[in-house]
Every structure is written in structure tokens, then in C-alpha cells.
Amino acid sequence: MERLVAVENKTSSSNFIKTIVEADLKAGKVSEIVTRFPPEPNGYLHIGHAKSICLNFELADEYKGKTNLRFDDTNPLKEDTEYVDAIQEDVRWLGFEWDDLRFASDYFEEMYNRAVLLIKKGKAYVCDLSAEQIRETRGTLTEPGQHSPYRNRSVEENLDLFARMRAGEFKDGEKVLRAKIDMGSPNITLRDPVLYRISHTHHHRTGDAWCIYPMYDYAHPLGDAIEGITHSICTLEFEDHRPLYDWVIAECEMDAEPHQYEFARLNLTNTIMSKRYLKMLVDEGVVDAWDDPRMPTVSGLRRKGFTAEAIRAFCREIGVARAYSVVDERMLEHFIREDLKLKAMRTMAVIKPLKVVITNYPEGQVEMLDAENNAENEEMGVRQIPFSREIYIEQDDFMENPPSKYFRLFPGNEVRLKHAYFITCQEVIKDAEGQVTELRCTYDPETKSGSGFTGRKVKGTIHWVEASQAVPAEFRLFEPLLLDSEEEDDEKPFLERINPNSVEVLEGFVEPNMKEAAGQDKFQFFRHGYFNVDPKLSGQGRIVFNRIVSLKSSFDAKA
Length: 559
Ligand code: ATP
Ligand code: MG
Prior knowledge:
This protein has a seven-stranded mixed beta sheet. It has twelve helices and 25 strands. Helix 2 packs across helix 11, helix 7 crosses helix 8 and helix 11 packs across helix 12. Among the domains are: 232 residues, Rossmann fold (3-Layer(aba) Sandwich); 124 residues, CATH 2.40.240.10. It is an alpha/beta fold. Bound molecules: adenosine-5'-triphosphate and magnesium ion. Adenosine-5'-triphosphate (ATP) binds next to helix 2, strand 8 and helix 9.
């Protein structure tokens, strides 16, 4: 698999689908663009769906057209209203509003009637072969398929059997309705594809009204035609299905004539992009829910702290192309940094605390220091943070025996405390096991931040939180949930690709002014990166921060 970053068609003014739309409008083939986003409600939306959503809605917006949200609810076994609700919430959160909300099941009666029409025209027949027999007789790329022994049933017999299928006279799998097209077609999709199957399953909308359900390849074109969709955009796997799509529209004698166009689906490094597998992670308890911050779902990304703006900007940047590619996950991260850079308050959090006592600072004294909220955005103003004799610093900002070029704290070394004073490490306190438990430092009152002190320079600046008012907080740092195989052709079984270190939970402190931080508030913690208050886990005195992304990455989207 080639690792590529899709950089084609970057600007919003060009992509191959827009070229087609513009030509169709110009030629008068269509008077208004109508698109649809057609999810199957069998799981939550993921970042790949976001690409399709942005594409469909933004295309219609740009040409003053319409977009429907249509649930492709033709497989009741796997579908649920929980998913229907979650999908609507996610589409809205991404910033889009549909014109019509539709369900493929709205059209079951019409689809049935069109199937009867096909039978009457001799274009469809009831077949008694099992699913396995149908597969076995379908042929291969080099060999034609075999005719079903039921292919030449009379129209009357087919009408009778199809009505009885609907009436519930047969068990699941006993019969199907197949299109009569061409068992010798080089396109296997056209070798008498199944149009209807029997499934005695309760449907979340139609209840027990139906026990036969249309297949995707039959339901989808009809849904598009019924809604007057002009440009039906799907992913490349359906390219071979396009002749069948056109066949269904033509043979069912639909008035409207939608057209299918295919684009390359989004793939991201180290990311599983399939509802089936994501559901497995939920069902197996690998993650706590569909919106677990490690999930590439829209709800997971939201809970982790991604904004809709960042996701939309990412989708625009990757563009729409027909070439297969795998986008570097760091590109998505680039866009959340860009979005939060000037918006998020920059504060200090200590995620692995080490107590520091400043021995020459007056006991009992607390002073308030000025700290700008965002050094790159003055408009965000200044806050006050307390400073006193006891503070917490990061364990990682101290080393007893540092290597050369280590500029943070070590015995005898002086560093700057961000927004405060220079301190020098004088003494290291350890417990019985030799673990460092506390540092004794001295500070120089002359070096107060903002005082204009120029007497001497220090190389290291570290962050800290005043101890008596520090607010305890939990921090969750993430790594990819799944790791791509190292070897290109070594496709490991899915559950073996799970990264055992996908989350690290740490307990530390934040500044007192963050006591009120609540669901979805976003911050940049000095040196640690961007964090989001987890809306599910926080509350009643507990604050949990999810790290959205660290501050820097080696990836440059513009490179
Ligand atoms: P999955 O395999 O994850 O279940 P799907 O294609 O079966 O995906 P649907 O609910 O049928 O999921 O998809 C709704 C729409 O989203 C379809 O038009 C589909 O082409 C599009 N889509 C799904 N995955 C991606 C992806 N990775 N990139 C772009 N579009 C996608
Ligand atoms: Mg699907």
C-alpha cells in the first residue's frame, strides 16, 4: 500500500465532480443540483463518512442546490434507531443541514411495485438457489456464469412466487428475486444479481410489515431517482456497479435519471475505517463506546476535542480524487492545531507532578502574577495566576544527572519559571527507595517576569502550578488504537493490530482558574499540546482532559 498524502485538487474551486456538475448545468442537463448522503444506520459515522458528507453538502451549497440525508435502511438485522439518531447529530455537528430527511424504507412499496414491473417485462425471476449456489454458479473473471435452472420460469409463476415471498410463505434464504441480465457479462455485477432477499426480521421503522428486503444495488438507484438526485456520489468500489445502477433506472422506467460518480474513499494511516470493525471494537470492549476518544468516529473525534471546522478544513484539503491514496493521520492533526492556535487559552498543567519548595520565598505569602492567555492573540487578554513558596513542576523537567545540553532543572542549575521567576535547584529530597520526592530551590526576586530584568540569561523555561490552589485533574494521552503492519504485505488479523498502549491516564494539576472548565472546553497546555475537557467523564468535581494533539509534528501539510 503506497503511503501518499492526497494533495490533488486542493482548492475549493476544482475537482473532477465540480467539473461534471458545471458542465451539466451549462448544458441544461439539470436545472438544480441535488445530492444525498446515504448512510446505512448500522454504526456511527467515521472520518471517512465526514469526507462524503462535506463533499455532498458543500457541492450542493456551492451550486445552490439541495442535499438529502437518506438512511439506507434495507438491512434490518444490523440497523438500529440509536444509529439513526447518532448519525443525524453528527451531520448537524459537522455544520450541515439537510433539505429532506428520507429513509429507503419510505420507498419499500414503490420498490416492490417496480420489481413487479420487472417481472412482467421478463427482466426478473424468482430463484430457489441458495446464496452459496448462486455464488458458485456466478463464474469468475475468466469464466462465464451458469444459468439458474429457475431462470425461465413464466411471468405468471414469478408473479405468484414473488407475491408469496412478500406474504411470508417462505423461510429466509429459500428464494430470492434476481434480475435477468447476462450470466456471460464480463462485469460480474451484471450476472443476474439478487434484487430481493427474504429476511423475517423486525425493522426499526416498518416493523413486521415486510419480510422481503431490497438489496443495495436495487434500492439505491431507485431511492436516488425517487428523490430526484442528480449526482449520486459514491466510493470507487461501486464503479463496477454503475452499469447495474443504470440498468435498474432504465428497466424500472423511472422518470428521473440520476447518475452515479465515484471517488476514492478516505484512508488514514493507523486508522480503521469500517463500521464493521469499529463495531467489533465496541462489542469486544476494546473501547468504552462508539465515542471513545480513540475512535476515528465523528463522535470520538469530537469527544477527543476535534472541532467541526478542523474536520471540514481537512476534508477540503484532501480534496476529491479518483486515485487511491492513504492520507497521513498527522494531516488531520495539523488542521486542529491550525484551528485552535489562536482560539485556545494557553495555560499551564502539570501532568506528572514533582513538588518544589522555594526556600527563600516568604512563608504564607501568595502573590498574583500576570499571564497572557494567548501569546499570539493579544485580544484574549491576561489572567492572574498565584505564586507561592510551594509549586509543582513536571517530573520530566528535572534530572539529577543530566546529559550535556540539558537545559531544564538539575542540581545547581537555574531555569525560568514561565510567567514567574528564575529558580535554582539547591537540594534533592528522596524517599527510602531513592525516588526523588521533592526539590528545594531558591528564587531570585529580581528576575520577575515582565520586570524587564536583563541581568543574566537562562536557557530553560519550565511550567508549574502553585501547590495550595492547584486543581487536581486527570489527563489522558492517546496513541493510535491500531497500528498498521510494519511489513507491507503482512496483513495481521485485525484484533492483533490493537495497540496495547493506546491510552495513558495521568493525574496532575491545572491552574486554579480552570476549576470551572467544563465539557468540550479546549486549552493549550504549555509544552503538552491541545487538550479538551472530556464531556462524559468530567463533572461533580472531577476534570478529565483528553489530549487532542501534541504541539508539534514533523508533518507539514503544505510541504
Ligand atoms: P463502512 O464500510 O465503514 O461501513 P460504508 O460505505 O458501508 O462504510 P455507508 O453508511 O454505506 O458506509 O456509507 C455512507 C456513505 O459514506 C457512502 O456514500 C460511502 O461511499 C461513504 N463513505 C464510507 N466510507 C467512506 C470513506 N472512507 N471515504 C469516503 N466516503 C466514505
Ligand atoms: Mg455500506
